[in-house]
Amino acid sequence: MKPVKFEYHAPATVDEALALLGRYGGEAKILAGGQSLMPLMNFRLSRPAALIDLNRIASLAYIREDDGHLAFGAMTRQRTVEFSPVVAQRLPLLREATRWVGHLPIRSRGTIGGSIAHADPAAEYPAVLTALDGEVRVRGPRGERVLKASDLFVTYLTTRLEPDEILTEVRLPAMPAGAGHAFEEFARRHGDFAIVGIAAMVVRDGGRCRQARLATAGAGPVPVRLRAAEEILERDGLGDRAIEAATARAAELVSPDADIHASADYRRHLTRVLAARALRRAAGPGARRG
Amino acid sequence: MMSPESTRERWIGRPVKRVEDHRLLTGRGTYIDDHPPVANVHAAAIVRSPHAHARILGYDVSAALAMPGVVGVITGADVAASTKPFGVGVTAPVHYYCAATDKARFVGEPVAVVVAKNRYLAEDAAEAVVVHYEPLPAVVDPERALEPDAPVLHETVGTNLAGNRRLVYGDPDRAFAEAEVVIRERFRFPKYASTPIETYGVIARWDGLDGVLTVWSNFMGPFIMHPLVARVLGLPENRLRFIVPPDIGGSFGIKSSIYPYMALIGLAAMKTGVAVKWIEDRREHLLASSSGTDRVAYRELAARRDGTILGMRYRWIDNVGGYIRSPEPGCSFRPTGNFVGPYAFQHLEVDASVVMTNKSLTGPNRGYACGHLYFETEGMIDRLAATLGMDPVAVRRKNLIPATAFPYRTPTGGLYDSGDYEATLDRALEHADYAGLRRRQVEARAAGRWFGIGVALAVDPSVSNMGYVATALDPQFRAKPEYLPKSGAMDAATVKVDPLGRVTAIMATTPQGQGHQTVVSQIIADELGLRPEDVTVVDEMDTFTRVWSISSGTYSSRFGSVGAGAAALAARKLRAKLVDYAAHLMEVPVEQVEFRDGTARMKGGQGPSYTVKDLAGRAHWNATSMPEGMEQGLQATAVFGFSVAGAVDAQDRVNSSNTYGFIAEVMAVEIDRATAAVTIDKYVTVHDAGTIINPMIAEGQIYGGALHGLGGAMFEELAYDDDGQLLTGTFMDYLVPTASEAPTIDIAHVVSPSPLTPLGSKGLGESSSMTVPAVLANAVSDALAPLGVRITQLPITPSRLWHLIEDAKT
Amino acid sequence: MAEPVTVRLTVNGVGHEGRCEPRKLLVDFLREDLALTGTHVGCEHGICGACTVLIDGVAARSCIMLAVQADGAEIVTIEGLMQDGALHPLQAAFREHHGLQCGFCTPGMLMTALDFLRVNPTPTEPEIREALSAVLCRCTGYHGIVKAVAAAAPVLAKRA
Ligand SMILES: Cc1cc2nc3c(=O)[nH]c(=O)nc-3n(C[C@H](O)[C@H](O)[C@H](O)COP(=O)(O)OP(=O)(O)OC[C@H]3O[C@@H](n4cnc5c(N)ncnc54)[C@H](O)[C@@H]3O)c2cc1C
Ligand code: FES
Ligand code: FES
Q1: Residue of B20, B515, B700 lying closest to C144 (CB–CB)
Q2: ipTM of the shown complex
Q3: Mean pLDDT, rounded, for C74-89
């Protein structure tokens, strides 16, 4: 389990990195935290001619608050996200989701940009990005563009990024003050990718639900935003009956696949169960009434 | 018993801290991959079949040979030309070579070996080896493999059935005819392994002029594989040297199956002329090392209405993979002597079929076949209880072998050496507060929760008697004059005293984490009145320097009785010599001298006394001070071997192990109504393993064994698709339980010393690995009894369980 | 470049320099080039954790990192834990509580626990279990390991 031979570059700037990517014309791979790419390379399933290592680009690691958003440099470690006070305050859902990403030693190296670019359908960050309607900034030889979460994920391990593009920043709207949130996940072992995970945020307004956000991990080839379920909540509030109806709808909105760990039906069922748990927790103790 | 004269506290029975720990905690262990024992070692990479079943049409190694750093490529053609197939445990003509020759029969089967300057280059070149295959249809299900139109793996055999035996003990037909209740069930036990964190490793050097092949490996034995490998490579046994490094990173039975690689890498060293090292990687390990068998079992139980079991029928179809590799078909026969478990019924029929399919090969895996056995038996007993409306404990109690019956001869030939099964069961019930759990269950059920309690009992056999393997052969075959019966289980130890009175013990064992050095130092310290730190224990097995025999090795929980027994006997022998020598120096008859607290002195206390150190100094520096006729020097070698381990008899009865412990377990679980996730609420395990030498180490074995059992019961499976492709080829998919999944375990002991071993000890290395599948399945079934769901298949994954529940609801 | 690269790094306080192919895994570099064989290889895909070392103060897998990426880094391995010829308190706790059998997972367990106890000096048992779920052990059932980490926590907290 040793990688194939490759050429290695550790540029200091994004421009250099882009130039190198261009030079290899699709044959090079970006190396971020390596926590997904290196296992694939050790299995020789990924066989790039060259690796462009972003770890020496200091300007890609930051967390910035601007304009009601939190902006994360692509190379921000998951561990940094986990312990960031501003994330705890403005994006507690992201913080909670981070605790589900592998284990601490994985999060020491794994990056937010890598996790999203990798687009594992069972991963937590893509679900959060989808739930919160986040976006990513991408740079390539044709300049910069912004991709919304809803446009980003194509299918398993595939995004709309071109091979010569670099994801440079992840932007998530800060959660409104008083928003409730929960990340519920079911996995067979601690630290595994989700069988199903649910990212939820609700903004309550007295007995009403002003805003509901629900997205899945593991319930299909891409994270699924459960908009029709959200609408039920936004219309009918966060009472038991509304949650019941919304989560039943949620289960209809997903088309999960089967694998050795779980059947499609079980995943669909979990979508409903976990969505309900997430919503109850996000809605807070008062939610059961009404 | 030992050192009866001693007035000080004994070391045996105390949780002495391990001497192994210092080196292992500071990164100074010596595992196979750590220190190249010879210079200029080259690395091997093995080319493996991507097909589950394919004819090999030819090889093209030219591109690989031309690659940088490559010194040679060995293919199946070389293997066919230069080696013999391994002997197998059945009469069917299965030709099992150390690599595929004519056909590949499972994904991952070795087809060629590349030797290069380092592993990176070797893997590069391995990809360049071209093997021409003609893919053939595959079969992975053992029942499907027996159908007439199934693809046949071995044309020479003509069928996928490697062997079948029908064993009859007592009069099972009559038992079933007289039964008031008959219970039937079909079970499936999964294929799982133990995946030691250290993988296989082999280093081989060929000294052509001397004709000596030296093979270093983290091989654990049994050393019957040494003559087997010698024969395969065409070497005299005293020209084949096996050396085992001081540290092995776990095994759990899995590393007994390294030996084909010892032959293959040995051949690579012989052919290329360089020393060759192969360290298995995890992909290779999951694809092709070893695992327990998957089994389809049809069980029948005959009983009276009062719960008395009259007899049972077992029909097994064991799947050994592409070839039947020794010691298989132990999967069917290793528990022969304890087929009846702890129960007193006398009538049993066993119909065991061993089937070859396009899966990886099987072999001993912690609990070797006992996990299968008790999963089925204990499940049957619970079904009987449910049918009769009895408590599962009451049914078990009714059928237990009584304490007064020991030593007990089972109908299948086992000799249970000691035990008090009922007392052990009571202990477990008391620890678990069984009555309290049942009360909690009533409450839980009233509240609509799924809470269940499982009980499982197991006779824990240890120190297998190699003779059991012959159960696989027909009695007519065994009756032929040219057939040589097989039996035995022995080990040797040497104890020597250096001139300053410190002691070194030399063992032929191959510990994989069991702390042999610590345990032997405790035993010898007691025998010689020393402290454990005065005893250095060397346990690096080396077939050129150690005293060993074909049953040697550290498997089948042998060490605690055989190895430990040999160490005790050697120390006793040496102690007797010290006393003789002291008597000679004191010029008194030996009867007047006693040995106490490390000192030989006159009984009654008067006169001179000699410490071990005094005697050692004199014996070494003034050798002629020893009496005439006494062998000079201070060393003793002793062999401990069981005499109750006979060959299988004409009625297929065999005492397949030498000591038999007992396990009683109670587990309570709760099942999440929404997700079907199982949570262990309480888990109590009580063991009777005779005398416990080091309780800390003993309990460590139980914790580890229990988690292995849990792995098989809930997480681990080597799953294949219908084409024979492995679906769980990474640690992402083959799920080893982590600390978060490990339950809290409440352990207690009952001690019935073995009358057969010098220290009264029995083995317990496999321990709860054989009971957890049973107790968990029973607990889950009990929780879901209101729905009528009964577990017949492992692992119990949440998805599977959810479907069972959903199906039961509709 | 696929040509050999020079790697300079500090391991256990000692500077080292080596040359290797860019594809060489950090764990292989430590074990083969620097002869520091205390760090073990168990899966080479990031799951088992046996290869975990501290890289610039935080625990990470050395099997899914390239040696060349560690250029300039400070690494601590199991060989670097002893202090003044005595076991580190965490090592001592592993011995005291039978936190190891075969010892193969031990380097990963120690380095993972060390990092974790810095982040969480007063952990609960479920938190310890969650942290240790980063490393697989097949021998101990984790019982002794969890006990050892729990016992070491207050000792380390006091030293900090
Ligand atoms: C034991 C273990 C458990 C894990 N468990 C989880 C889990 O539970 N949940 C989870 O979400 N993840 C899990 N992971 C994966 C982990 O989160 C990875 O860190 C993440 O998936 C990838 O991020 P990375 O920074 O490591 O990226 P890399 O592995 O370096 O790269 C991943 C892919 O993304 C591309 N890429 C990376 N960065 C960029 C960029 N800036 N622009 C364009 N392309 C880029 C790479 O070329 C590569 O194809 C686990 C990993 C391991 C080893
Ligand atoms: S060897 Fe690195 S995690 Fe297993
Ligand atoms: S002690 Fe053997 S793997 Fe942990």
Answers
A1: B700
A2: 0.98
A3: 96
